[in-house]
Automatic annotation (TrEMBL), chain A:
Alphabetic keyword roster: Cell membrane, Membrane, Transmembrane, Transmembrane helix, Transport
UniProt cross-references to SUPFAM superfamilies, sorted A to Z: MalF N-terminal region-like (SSF160964), MetI-like (SSF161098)
The protein's name in its UniProt record: Sugar ABC transporter permease
Residue intervals passing through the bilayer: 23-52, 87-108, 120-138, 170-193, 214-236, 242-263, 275-296
Nucleus as UniProt keyword: no
PROSITE patterns, A to Z: ABC_TM1 (PS50928)
The keyword Transmembrane helix is annotated on this UniProt entry: yes
Record's bilayer topology term: Multi-pass membrane protein
Family assignment from sequence similarity: Belongs to the binding-protein-dependent transport system permease family.
InterPro entries registered for this protein in UniProt: ABC_transporter_permease, MetI-like, MetI-like_sf
Domain ABC transmembrane type-1: 83-295
Domain of life: Bacteria
From TrEMBL, chain B:
PANTHER family, per the entry: ABC TRANSPORTER PERMEASE PROTEIN MG189-RELATED-RELATED, ABC TRANSPORTER PERMEASE PROTEIN YESQ-RELATED
Organism per entry: Anaerocellum danielii
Keyword vocabulary terms for this entry: Cell membrane, Membrane, Transmembrane, Transmembrane helix, Transport
InterPro entries registered for this protein in UniProt: MetI-like, MetI-like_sf
Segments forming domain ABC transmembrane type-1: 52-243
Protein name: Carbohydrate ABC transporter permease
Transmembrane segments: 56-75, 87-111, 123-142, 163-186, 222-243
Origin organism lineage: Bacteria, Bacillati, Bacillota, Bacillota incertae sedis, Caldicellulosiruptorales
């Protein structure tokens, strides 16, 4: 008899503990918490430690102090080259992509009946953009006997250059591929445009504003929080670009498309220079951190929040 | 916008000599289905059926894992009050901004030490531990469900756990579908993950198979390469056709990149 009561009270005690809000919360977030420690936090710390070592996966890591960082900044022209390629790519791609996304979102917000169709047409490239299939296709479009030259010939321009084989043009083919995939920022802009109260425009019309004035004075300021958001997401995404560059040009010709992520991959998995590439990934993290912080800081000057209106 | 994709589709029916002869002409002179037969044979004795099967295994199991685990975590964040919640939530949001390259090498070393390289485990196991984008998306969705429902269930004697399985889970099915679609699309297209962890052709996913198959130095049969590239886009395309609405909603609520 006493055994049974003991069992019951133990059972209810366990129940009470499991059902307390504090414990229940942790039980639910446990999968993420484990993943966060094992696959994010510990690896970040490990990357930081390994960045001060020489490590080829076979023999144990050897501590070398700041040597990787010194080598990177002082003795490695490829590091600087990959950095400048990546910065150029990011600073050209992101504004172009956002401009296209905004332009088409504006256009789609006017048309009504065919909007779902156009939305689909513009989104499909974004959806498939990361695939190897599209990368292979892109490669074939811009070869010397590819579609682009064929179309140019039709227009009377006889160009026999291979766009991806020429160091001056190769990066532009990758930029074009990225800009072609403006679908998801466009959808976010479209959602933002729907949020702008119609009454603002009506008031502007009464005041005699033309459509350019409406755009500059109402649409653009109201969209700034969304531009801000898209800017950060696209900036980070472009910094990490890998697959397209890796497959289409593999960093070439003459390193003209050597993205930072490709160079980092090479150092790690082709040269087995794990310490060096860990140092590279920390530099990447810091740069992305700084750029994100700068965008955040600058946002007080150009991002408009409606709630501040009364100030 | 769709011209490049259409060009690839139509080129997959063209004779090899025709593809680049008048490359701007879209429609093939003669429709050839031979490319699909040739392409399906794959390379080095590994037919594309092997790559498709591998991709389906990785994508479907990974997606199931990601959706279930993310739903559990999302409920914890959205509906439980516990100490340190704000802190952990902040950590989760930050991981969404973290470049993969920063964790890539230690993860690789870890999986190598575990002997998981050349298995699907490195691609599958992390999926079962929640994915921040989906967790965030589901949290947003759960916040839209009135709290009174939970309260009523609690009065009826439901524990937190049964509230989750009986009430919340069925109600957030649109968010589950949205996450599943994105998970499928991303995993299907994933290239870097398989590139790092799979080096045996019999384990290759479609991405890796396609890359081998269309290596410009080795392949001259572009008709067949385009045929397989076209086939590789079919699953994503079908999903898009059927679940467009969910895709759009997902992008709009979380600002998913891509």
């Amino acid at each position: 008899m006493s055994k049974v009561t003991y069992k019951i009270s133990l059972q209810s005690r366990v129940d009470r503990i499991i059902n307390s809000e504090n414990i229940a919360g942790y039980v639910f977030i446990l999968p993420w918490l484990v993943g966060f420690f094992v696959f994010t936090l510990i690896p970040i710390v490990a990357t930081f430690y390994l960045s001060f070592t020489q490590y080829d996966l076979l023999s144990p890591p050897k501590f070398v102090g700041l040597r990787n960082y010194i080598q990177m900044f002082k003795e490695d022209p490829l590091f600087w080259e990959s950095m400048s390629v990546t910065f150029f790519y990011v600073f050209v791609t992101v504004p172009l992509k956002l401009a296209f996304a905004l332009l088409l979102a504006l256009w789609l917000s006017y048309k009504s009946k065919l909007t779902p169709f156009y939305r689909a047409v513009y989104y499909i490239p974004s959806m498939m953009g990361g695939s190897v299939a599209v990368a292979v296709l892109w490669q074939r479009l811009f070869t010397s006997d590819g579609v682009i030259n064929s179309i140019l010939k039709l227009l009377g321009i006889d160009s026999n250059i291979s766009w991806i084989g020429n160091p001056k043009t190769a990066i532009w083919t990758l930029i074009l591929l990225a800009v072609w995939q403006f679908g998801s920022p466009m959808l976010i802009f479209l959602a933002g445009l729907k949020q702008i109260p119609e009454s603002y425009y009506e008031a502007a019309i009464i005041d005699g504003a033309n459509s350019w004035q409406k755009f500059i004075k109402i649409t653009l300021p109201m969209l700034t929080p969304i531009i801000f958001f898209n800017l950060i997401m696209q900036m980070i995404g472009s910094f990490m670009t890998f697959t397209q560059g890796f497959i289409i040009t593999n960093g070439g010709p003459v390193n003209s498309t050597l993205f930072y992520a490709i160079y980092l991959y090479r150092r790690a998995f082709q040269f087995y220079d794990m310490g060096y590439s860990c140092a590279m990934s920390w530099v990447m993290l810091i740069i992305i951190g700084i750029l994100t912080a700068l965008i955040f800081k600058s946002s007080t000057f150009w991002v408009y929040y409606e709630s501040k209106e009364g100030e | 916008m769709l011209y490049p994709l259409l060009w690839m589709f139509f080129s997959s029916f063209k004779d090899n000599s025709e593809i680049f002869l008048n490359a701007h002409e879209l429609l093939p002179k003669r429709w050839l289905f031979k490319n699909y037969v040739d392409g399906w044979k794959g390379f080095a004795g590994y037919p594309f059926s092997v790559f498709f099967k591998n991709s389906f295994i990785v994508t479907v199991i990974g997606t199931i894992g990601a959706v279930i685990s993310s739903a559990i975590v999302a409920y914890g964040f959205a509906r439980c009050k516990f100490k340190g919640k704000g802190f952990w939530f902040g950590c989760m949001i930050l991981t969404m901004l973290l470049p993969y390259q920063v964790v890539m090498i230690p993860q690789y070393i870890m999986f190598q030490k575990l002997g998981w390289v050349n298995t699907f485990k490195p691609l599958l196991v992390p999926a079962f531990l929640g994915q921040p984008f989906f967790i965030f998306l589901m949290i947003q969705f759960i916040r839209g469900i009135p709290n009174e429902l939970d309260e009523a269930a609690k009065i009826d004697g439901c524990s937190k756990y049964s509230i989750f399985t009986r009430i919340i889970l069925p109600l957030i099915s649109p968010a589950l579908i949205t996450s599943a679609i994105f998970s499928f699309l991303w995993r299907w297209d994933d290239f870097l993950g398989p590139l790092l962890y799979l080096s045996k052709p019999e384990l290759y996913t479609v991405s890796l198979g396609l890359r081998m198959f269309s290596d410009p130095t080795a392949v001259s049969n572009w008709g067949a390469a385009f045929a397989m590239a076209t086939l590789s886009l079919v699953p994503s395309f079908i999903i898009f056709i059927f679940f467009q609405r969910y895709l759009v909603e997902g992008i709009v609520t979380t600002g998913l990149k891509g």
